[in-house]
Amino acid sequence: MASRRSVVLWLLCSHLGSFCYYKAYGITVKTDNSHVKAREFEEAFLSCKYSTKKESDARIEWKKITGAGVSFIYFRRSFEGSFKDRAELIHASIQIKNVTRKDSGKYRCEISAPTENGQEAGEVEISLLVQVPSAAPVCEVPISAMTGTVVELRCKENEGVPAPKYKWYRNGIPLLESRELGKIKKGRVPYIMNSTSGTLLFKSVSKNDSGEYYCEADNKIGRPQKCPVKRMQVDDLNISAIIAAVVIVALIIASCGLGVYYAQKKGYFSSK
User: Fold this and answer.
1) Is 24 helix (H, G, I), strand (E, B) or coil?
2) Counting Cβ atoms within 10 Å, is residue 211 exposed (0-12), middle (13-18) or buried (19+)?
């Protein structure tokens, strides 16, 4: 019964925000912040506090929970692995210096100590998100397009944490999102810009859409980053030129056919 109660308390704690705690009889474990955010290459503080009914020499352990299992961070009064030279134990909390994106994940502070009922243990779970500024995105802009055709411009950035929002610019002027543009412009909206996926879609591109384009990625962690400027030229479909080209090609094919027929008549080719 007691074990079942401990499990229920731990589950409640894992779903609460800051100041959650886990209590097992004579020992209570809590944290001031169960969702920690820190910028890459800066410091992160993982809070863990405990109390017991009587003074005792508590054993403190820290573990990191990953998809592959659980690994020790602090064990037998020393840090393990990559944390040896950049982590410090402050009471039961740990301060990690120079955090990287690999440090993101779930951590568990486990406290065990002798109590009136014997050896008791408690734990609390903390998530760490290491935030990474956006890098310069990669943009795909067609050099040329014909009026009336479907054209899609793409923008992508894979370094930033959290994922950035995207904004497109034409001739140095930011393009409005489709919902904003729809409120201003009546009738057909000339394009659809998705700030999450980074796409800029023209369902029927026109000559007015010609210009110099670039995309900007921003996740509010560092400065916004942009890709190099690329020009897209939109031209009308020249029907007369297409007809003339088709006629010329047809005349060339006909001339070749007549030449072969004449040569065969003169006996330049064998019967085969």
Assistant:
1) strand
2) middle
**Residues 271, 183: contact at Cβ < 8 Å?**
no
- The 10s digit of each residue's pLDDT in 31-72 is 999 999 999 999 999 999 988 776 667 899 999 998 878 999
Task: Specify whether the CB–CB gap between 29 and 113 falls below 8 A.
Answer: no
Give Cβ neighbours of residue 166 (< 8 Å, ≥ 6 apart). Answer: 137, 155, 157, 194, 195, 196, 197, 198, 215, 216, 217
Q: Which long-range contacts (CB under 8 A, 24 or more apart) does 44-47 make?
A: 44/95, 44/96, 44/99, 44/103, 44/128, 44/130, 45/93, 45/94, 45/95, 45/96, 46/93, 46/94, 46/95, 46/96, 46/107, 46/109, 46/126, 46/128, 47/93, 47/126
Query: Taking a C-beta distance cutoff of 8 angstroms, is the pair 155, 230 a contact?
Result: no
Single pTM value for the model: 0.69
